[in-house]
Amino acid sequence: MSIVLAIDVGGTKLAGAVVDGRARILGRSRVPSPTGPDPELLYEALLTCCTAALRGADARPGDLAGIGVSCAGPMVWPSGEVSPLNMPAWRRFPLRHRLLREFEVEPVLVHNDAVGVAVGEHWKGAGVGTANLLGMTVSTGVGGGLILGGRLYHGASGNAGHVGHVIAEPDGPRCACGGHGCVEAIAAGPSTVRRALAEGWHPAEGRPADGISLASAAAAGDEIALRNIARAGRAVGIALASCAHLLDLEMVAIVGGFSQSGPPFWDALHGAFATYARMDFAAACQVIPGKLGADAPLLGAAAFVLDSERYGWDPGADR
Amino acid sequence: MSIVLAIDVGGTKLAGAVVDGRARILGRSRVPSPTGPDPELLYEALLTCCTAALRGADARPGDLAGIGVSCAGPMVWPSGEVSPLNMPAWRRFPLRHRLLREFEVEPVLVHNDAVGVAVGEHWKGAGVGTANLLGMTVSTGVGGGLILGGRLYHGASGNAGHVGHVIAEPDGPRCACGGHGCVEAIAAGPSTVRRALAEGWHPAEGRPADGISLASAAAAGDEIALRNIARAGRAVGIALASCAHLLDLEMVAIVGGFSQSGPPFWDALHGAFATYARMDFAAACQVIPGKLGADAPLLGAAAFVLDSERYGWDPGADR
User: Fold this and answer.
1) B319: number of Cβ within 10 Å
2) Cα B94-B99-B103 angle, rounded to 5 deg
3) Which of A18, A160, A213, A235 has the most CB atoms in a 10 Å sphere around its CB?
4) What is the pTM of this model?
5) pLDDT per residue over A116-168, tens digit each?
6) CA-to-CA distance for A60 and A139, rounded, in angstroms?
7) Do B162 and A238 make contact, defined as CB atoms within 8 angstroms?
8) How far apart are CA B231 and CA B185, in angstroms?
9) How does residue B318 score in pLDDT terms, banded at 50, 70 and 90?
10) Which among A260, A251, A228 has a CA at the least distance from the CA of A147?
């Protein structure tokens, strides 16, 4: 059976895994992302992680059918020059090209990590068997990827799936993108925490001011926490109603830390979705949590190569 | 060269045309839509129209490579049982099946008229050469169709492209669909006219209270007309920013009577789009008027059959 090396590059951790066609992880490794300015140090850490995953699977580069990478955006697609927002060491870093040279394996396919999540959830997670799926991440940022007509949809420049910039509150807060009222500006964990802090919320003694603390406060009945998490859920629900109308989706599968904020988030989300998605076909779209958790981007990266008919693409020649 | 019969079924008129592979209209006919409750009378009027188009092209049913139909929605797709909102005579009328039996020609492909517009504009209009296009109609209603990755995208139930129900003002007016602040509730001609009337606008002596009169009033500097047309344009611009982020589109081509309301509409639309679509890839999406005018749904219907690789589908067996 074919095996691939799957890589997940994020601002907090680097992960590598050797994955087979049944989505079994035969070897894996994970290290914190180096935070310094040196692009080579970051790359070396990634290689170390990959080597450990290969060793864990008792595999050599020559055994691989290819390499799939889910990487934090933005990036130039499909050439795979990456500039992850939270990893300033890499600016137009030629990740795909470097991995090609390093492992002498083709194809090497690099895509947005939120696209990796969507593919993972479609391949082996909540979306198995659906033809039209939005996979969405609600975490430090809000992103997504689209499976349409049974295949990964890339868009004109590989940027399709940016559900975080669907507009949920036209008169709402300014977004980092320069726009206003984008879902991400309202519903990302840090946006929600910032609003709660501004309204007077404080995390419990010794706890950080983050989404987990805010969710705990909401669970304990804190009004400010409840109100702001509900606003985040409502923004996601409104945006998803727009997506369901536009794309006639069967399912939206949501992953990411902040999406695990419990009923205050999900009740507001489902309430808003029910209020705004009224046409039968849109109301029929299921909005549910994903199933794969933190492995979604790794399994998606594996599927780019292992199920290229549905999830792959031609990255062009650049060896 | 193959020829097809193309049909456009709308609440005000029925149109038929014989079209060849170069999008030449070899014969055509057009009649007002009968308004009575008799489904057969409406069907007979459509047949008369088709027969006249065939006669104009000196063609017989046996010459046809198929029949394409753009019909006002909603409908059951792909089986083609139509229930046009403004044509109460037809409720789950088996239009596709009737045409199959009548002309003994296959395929007969029936889709939403807004989908026909999008396909027409992609095949031979403003969107030629694009891979990712939203074709949009702003008229009595607001609708659309999507070409993604170079092909017509249908969605789970043939309802993809309902851009009229993307949410532009979450706290805005109630929509006929039951939701709130949908583009259609704000930017359709009748919605805009109704708002202007409520604010004290009156059409000129002897003129109807419609979108054309409102656009004339705006052109003459009427403040209420200007304000309400601008609100319509802004709603479209916000919705399109959401669409451009989600789908990484190259172009949106807009047709329909109310979209011809001139600079008060288009300036507000482009202004809102520029304000809300800030990521480079989204800002790069062109938003322009369509090129085919009233022939767009007819040419799109022809293309369902004539370019089935890109625009066709399998309607299933039901003879």
Assistant:
1) 8
2) 160
3) A235
4) 0.97
5) 999 999 999 999 999 999 999 999 999 999 999 999 999 999 999 999 999 99
6) 35
7) no
8) 11
9) low
10) A251
Residue A215 — pLDDT band, cuts 50, 70, 90? very high
Cβ(A69)–Cβ(A7) below 8 Å: yes
Report pLDDT for A126.
98
Phi, then psi, of B16 in degrees rounded to 5: -135, 150
At A112, list the tokens.
């947005």
This complex has an ipTM of: 0.97
Query: What residue type is assigned to position B268 of the chain?
Result: A
What number of CA atoms fall less than 13 Å from residue B192's CA on the CB side?
A: 37
Kindly list the structural domains of chain A, giving each domain's residue range(s) and its CATH number in brackets, ordered by start. Answer: 3-113+295-311 (3.30.420.40), 126-290 (3.30.420.40)
Distances in Å between the alpha carbon of B243 and those of A243, B21, B121, B163?
Answer: 8, 31, 18, 8
- The answer for B 119-158 residues in CB contact with A (under 8 A) is 131-132, 146, 148-149, 153-158
For residue B319, give the amino acid letter: R
| Structure-block tokens of residue A107 | 């194809």
The answer, for B249 touching chain A at a CB cutoff of 8 Å, is yes
Q: How far apart are the first and last CA of chain A?
A: 27
Residues of B in contact with A132 (CB under 8 A): 155-156
The token duo for B13 is 């008129």
Decide if A246 and B162 are in contact by the 8 Å CB cutoff.
yes
